[in-house]
Amino acid sequence: MRFSLALLFAMALCPAFAQTPDWSKLDAEIMRHFQALVQIDSTDPPGNETKVVDYVRKVLEAEGIAVTIAAKDPARANLIARLKGNGSKRPLLIMGHSDTVRVDASKWTFPPFSATRQGGYVYGRGTLDDKSDLVADMMTMVLLHRLHVPLDRDVIFVSEAGEEAATAPGIEYLVNERWSDIDAEICLAETGSVRRRNGKSFYATIQTTEKQPKPARLVVKGPAGHGSRPLRANAVVHLSRAVEKIAMWDPPMRFNDTTRSYFEKLANLSSPEDAARYKGLFDTQKAPAIREYFAENEPGLSSLLHTSISPNMIQAGYQVNVIPSQAEATLDIRALPGEDMTAFYELMRKEINDPAVEIVPDTRNRRPSAAPSPSDSSAFHALEAAYQKIYGVTTLPIMSTGATDMAFLRAKGVQCYGVGAMVDDEDAAKGFGAHSDQERILEESVYKHVQFYWQAVTSIAGH
Ligand SMILES: [Zn+2]
Predict the structure, then answer these.
(1) Cα 133 to averaged position of ligand 1 atoms, centre (Å)
(2) CA 389 to centroid of ligand 1, rounded, Å
(3) pLDDT tens-digit map of 114-134
(4) 229 contacts: CB under 8 Å, gap ≥ 6
């Protein structure tokens, strides 16, 4: 009697200990689900995410977890499942997308939907992006329910459709028409990762903000004429000059909390040479030369420093002997969070310095603007601690240069954090990255990502 009371007392003090899953017994189950998810062809377009939803629904319902199917298009369903907490905190949303980008099957050593296991990897479209998150989310729900984990907040799981090519049936439908089903204080979704180099975990990243797509066109009108009599006023000539100027321009550098912390922490992990560059960005004397170096050698880092401009399409002319009266270039402009675009266009005009060139913004609203999620919140610290516990690495907050569906949730006031599985830094260059001709993930990474999710979710939502 005394013994059992003491044991009960100890269990009450250490609920986390009592509830830790036996991971060694779960690997086979995790891998079986992961392979099954990869083997479902959910290439977007057309998506057919309902096939993924059918699988996830069966798994969750077999555990006794109720699911809601939320579909704007019956073939492109989202799935929502909720585990109830005691309501003392607002919900946590965990989200993975069920669609994948297209494939050219002729480029694949193993068929893209085979989920072949070979040499410590699993091969298949979606292994990195994003079925590794999907299986981690699903297994976390299964384990929370199986182990009766008491929760301070509801945990909501969403299998999201249409992330890669069409937000209408996915995040836009969920945010605009199913908001009460997914409304949460905190969200975990894709885009972070654990970076491994030479087989060793190096650091982890959590996405807290992203740049916003703000495309625009440069339009030049000029006199038409006979090609045998060249004109200085030729629209093509004016446009070419403007395109070169704007592409070589170094727009004003601006840090936010995320990028400042990113470069500071990256410096601590880097070689003396690299570290000097990262630190030099904060030195007004040294920064211009470093920005030039990054523009030439590190385009991904360069884009973090300012609103960026890439001229990606040019249209002019229709016949060799005709001077065209109009020429235009389409610019992919990626704005820093909070950028004042009116002021930015003014700077562009000054840089181009040619009254013949007009800047025409594309006013279609692609992604809502939103403030960055804080990198000093308790949720961020819980994620940092989870990465440390599972991988033994420090965490860097990151800003995506590309756009993600988290923009829609952040715009609704949700704190969103992009997390992800472990990848070898060398692997993308070998052609096995997300969206590459082939895609693969380390088997170990699949298991560890479930453990990471478990650790993060129990820490953020557990009682
Ligand atoms: Zn993705």
Answers:
(1) 9
(2) 25
(3) 999 999 999 999 999 999 999
(4) none
